[in-house]
Design brief:
With 220 residues, the protein is α/β, with parallel strands linked by helices. The protein is 37% helix and 19% strand. The protein has seven helices and nine strands; from the N terminus they run βαβββαβαββααβαβα. A seven-stranded parallel β-sheet has the order 3-2-1-4-5-6-9, sandwiched between helices. A two-stranded parallel ribbon has the order 7-8. The longest helix is centred in the middle third of the chain and has 22 residues. The radius of gyration is 16 Å and the shape is globular.
Amino acid sequence: MAIKAIITGATGMVGEGVLHECLQHPDVEQVLVINRKPGGVTHPKLREIIHTDFLNLTAIESQLTGYNACFFCLGVSSVGMKEPEYRRLTYDLTLYVAQTLARLNPDMTFNYVSGAATDSTEQGNSMWARVKGATENALLRLPFKKAYMFRPGFMKPTEGLKNTLVYYKYIAWLYPIGRALYPAGFSTLRELALAMINSVRVGYEKPILEVKDIVKLAKQ
């Protein structure tokens, strides 16, 4: 099937990796990135909208129709952040974008990059895990064609991309050891991106994908 995808967070490490694979993939026909600042990527498949307020998409709604996939890679770290602010930038922002896209594109598959150890019960001690869990649960209630929550762990970055987090350069040597000893916690960024593309192409048997599911779906 021809995939027409919206990507958020394309100026971050994960979003850039997902964008990179989408531009290479023969089944991805069009890509729209919504960025707060120019991403600096040009490609015949790619269109970019610069928009700073993700809690108000009214001005660009007319440009968000006709897409059958969203790869939501936008996120913030909870480090140093109080729960109300983290919830606003994680739960509120994500749900607003998702609700808008569900209304405009009911035939859409929505993929959300969450994280390993996310708390689906919303009752645990970890603030970020509770908020991520609440976000996942709310997204799964929206009227999308399909919705998948991706929970990556340690990801090996894609070589040659510019937004790789600096500290990954110093811990990259851990990846082959971790993959061998604890495959449930280690994948590549490319595998995450391919799994997201394949979720639109062929689907998956469950809505929440842990690392092993991500690796499995990447191969389909």
